[in-house]
Design goal:
single chain; about 350 residues; alpha/beta; Four Helix Bundle (Hemerythrin (Met), subunit A); Rossmann fold; 7-stranded mixed sheet; 4-stranded mixed sheet; 16 strands; about 40% helix; globular
Length: about 350
């Protein structure tokens, strides 16, 4: 399993693959200011909770690198303004807010603008490096949950495209296959933007791993008929009670898994956890109507129809068997073990 990076920061610019072009075209885009980064996130050129956090950290590094101000307080205010703009791009994901706050903290601890630039760029690069280290470890932890002969399902895309490298849930599946285990893999197409059909399928094809693609509304039938026994998904936000926000459709799959006796695993780095808010206090993003009325630019619905297009849903903890992180697997009761885990993690981490 290789460490090919999805996003890099070099010479004051951000280089990343345009995920909206996949699988037809593997195109690298260059982003030179924070508004370009925000547009890339909103348009799903950059998507996946961990990589969005890194992209926003890099965006602040880009802006810090260009600062011409001599007053450090004014420089900090400039970065705070940029941060507020970036935070409005994808309000449900926690990693975005976590990464931005880490960079802002570094800027506020700077005595002058020169130090601020150095601190911001260093912190953004550290966030990216730690994403790689965390994901490498968590896919190793996730891989241990997969056995020969398993039948596995994954939803949306949680591979290296969603992170700087390695991925999370899909990364665990790929790691298990590369380690020599043999099992059957099913992936959902993930309407309305087809992250499964376009991105997860692309990653598995790249790795020469066999799989079956199914539509989202086939899950119950296929899970029962094919005896799917394990589901692996990523996460955009995990609350202290074990509730998980992830791509729309995750909640439904979790319910089906519970009914049919399949184990349901969430795989995500520690930066995804949110101990400050409750699920009902978090904004769930709703996206444009044309994502539902059209498929890949082709309109499929009559004009004038009303559309509801939530980007995420929230899966309650009773439907989740365990949460896999870079520091180990968190088992139930989540309300007790998540807080214990995070406290221990933060006491032994430079993040």
């Amino acid at each position: 399993m290789y460490e090919k990076r999805t996003i890099t920061f070099k010479n004051g610019k951000i280089y990343t693959i345009d995920q909206s072009k996949l699988p037809k075209e593997e195109k690298i885009i260059v982003l030179e200011n924070y508004k370009e980064v925000a547009e890339a996130i909103k348009s799903m050129k950059i998507r996946g909770a961990p990589i969005i956090g890194v992209a926003c950290a890099f965006a602040l590094a880009v802006e810090a690198n260009k600062l011409k101000l001599s007053n450090v307080k004014m420089a900090i205010r400039k970065l705070e303004k940029v941060s507020n703009y970036l935070k409005n791009t994808r309000p449900t994901g926690k990693n975005l807010f976590w990464a931005i706050d880490k960079v802002l903290e570094a800027s506020r601890n700077s005595k002058d603008v020169k130090t601020l630039k150095r601190n911001v760029i260093r912190t953004a690069e550290e966030i990216a490096e730690n994403d790689v280290k965390a994901n490498k470890k968590l896919v190793e932890n996730g891989e241990k949950l997969i056995k020969d002969g398993d039948v596995v399902l994954t939803h949306c895309n949680s591979g290296r495209l969603a992170t700087v490298a390695y991925g999370t849930a899909l990364g665990s599946i790929i790691k298990a296959w590369k380690s020599g285990k043999r099992f059957k893999i099913f992936i959902t197409e993930t309407r309305p933007l087809l992250q499964g059909a376009r991105l997860t399928a692309w990653e598995l094809k790249k790795e020469k791993i066999p799989f079956h693609l199914i539509t989202d509304n086939m899950v119950a039938f296929v899970m029962k008929k094919e005896k799917i026994n394990k589901v692996f998904v990523g996460a955009d936000r995990i609350w202290s009670d074990g509730s998980v926000a992830n791509k729309i459709g995750t909640y439904g799959i979790a319910i089906i898994s519970k009914v049919l006796g399949s184990k349901f695993f969430v795989v995500a780095p520690s930066s995804t956890f949110d101990l400050s808010l409750k699920p009902n206090e978090t904004v769930v993003e709703f996206r444009k109507e044309d994502e539902v009325t059209s498929v890949m630019g082709l309109r499929i619905a009559p004009r004038g129809v009303k559309v509801l297009n939530p980007a995420f849903d929230i899966t309650p903890p009773e439907y989740i068997n365990a949460i896999v992180t870079e520091k180990g697997v968190i088992n139930k009761p989540f309300s007790k073990n998540i807080k214990k885990f995070l406290l221990n993690y933060r006491n032994h981490s430079n993040l």
